[in-house]
Amino acid sequence: MMALKEISNIRFCSCHDSQYIKPKRMLFCENGKERSWDIIEAHDSVAILLYHQPKDSFVMVKQFRPAVYLKESTRKTPNLKVELGYTFELCAGITDKAGKSLKKIAQEEILEECGYEIPLENIHKITEFYSSVGFAGSKQTLFFATIDESCRQNQGGGIDDENIEVVFIPKTEAYDFILNESYPKTSGVMFAFLWFFKNFEGC
Amino acid sequence: MMALKEISNIRFCSCHDSQYIKPKRMLFCENGKERSWDIIEAHDSVAILLYHQPKDSFVMVKQFRPAVYLKESTRKTPNLKVELGYTFELCAGITDKAGKSLKKIAQEEILEECGYEIPLENIHKITEFYSSVGFAGSKQTLFFATIDESCRQNQGGGIDDENIEVVFIPKTEAYDFILNESYPKTSGVMFAFLWFFKNFEGC
Lengths: 203, 203
Fold this sequence. Notes:
Two copies of one chain form a homodimer. By secondary structure, the first copy, chain A, is an alpha+beta fold. The first copy, chain A, has one domain: Nucleoside Triphosphate Pyrophosphohydrolase, CATH 3.90.79.10. Helix content of chain A is 22%, strand content 35%. Chain A contains four helices and ten strands, in the order E-E-E-E-E-H-E-E-H-E-E-E-H-H. Chain A has helices spanning 66-75, 102-114, 174-179, 187-201; strands at residues 7-14, 23-30, 33-40, 45-52, 57-64, 86-89, 91-94, 124-131, 138-147, 165-170. In chain A, strands 4, 5, 6, 7, 8, 9 and 10 form a seven-stranded mixed beta sheet that branches. A two-stranded antiparallel ribbon of chain A has the order 2-3. In chain A, a hairpin with a 2-residue loop joins strand 2 and strand 3 (33-40). The first copy, chain A, is globular. Chain A starts with 6 loop residues before the first strand and ends with a helix. The mean pLDDT of chain A is 90. At the A-B interface, strand 1, strand 2, strand 3, helix 1 and strand 8 of A face strand 1, strand 2, strand 3, helix 1 and strand 8 of B.
């Protein structure tokens, strides 16, 4: 879905009572010395590498990320463009749904964000890793699924206030894409593409 | 360096005035609708994939990460072991040194953490990516260098309070290593290893 991208009137304010970001201080004793380290408790997440076989493309999501925009706004001035806050990511979601398996949450995210209904048995776990280990330490579990248009249920784009654009990256362009800094992206995407190449194409 | 790893008496307390984690609220207007998003400003960083040619191994660092320990402590009980808070990472550091190039900071981190003195011209940029785009959006710039014992200056291990263990991962074991969840690690490491294979070995 080509989501409308009209973002304006960006402002920042202080934030002492966030429901989402709750700083915590860890105190511990290391080799006899008292230490402390400030961290936040972030949600774990799932991400899914989607390979669309007939299109020979990977399916990604592109969305506005306030935190990326903030960082870029401190680097690039003047004439900061909103476009700098958009990142290319794997289809993903936080695992805040009690009682659901990670694979089930992955399945729901694929449907909500990208519009494809994939049977659970066609969603395969690759591995898991941590993000921002210095201050957050949230774990992301990575899955893989092959899709085609027979799985199409809707146009994707996310639910509620989400404003997600579904993007197809041709496999033949994927290696250049991950090294091209003009497309802001996560290392999870970069690993996932190379895993695909190594696992299925031996290169 | 085989760092001593004696961590005990782990406690948590509230944290309203962190110098390191400063929540911020971004307000913006998306397609006519007022929205807000809570984020933190995290430091950008550099990381370096180090390949030790004579040992045919990648050089990594292993260290205790309070944020990872906290997350694991919410998952695995009882008898939580401190070992669960140790992660395998690329040699890395935050870019908080004003006036120094990213490559220079990378060079200093290699010396401080791993003990090797590498000329700037032997440190090559691979690309850059973002971490935790949902709430932090910090950018990591990834470098690569080939090293051997002629570059050895000290035993590494970090400076000040750092307590870093230098670990060699044989290249022949690296692919199994990145998929093995019993070694907690970042997706940056996983991407970097596969980049090496694709770039230098075509697989």
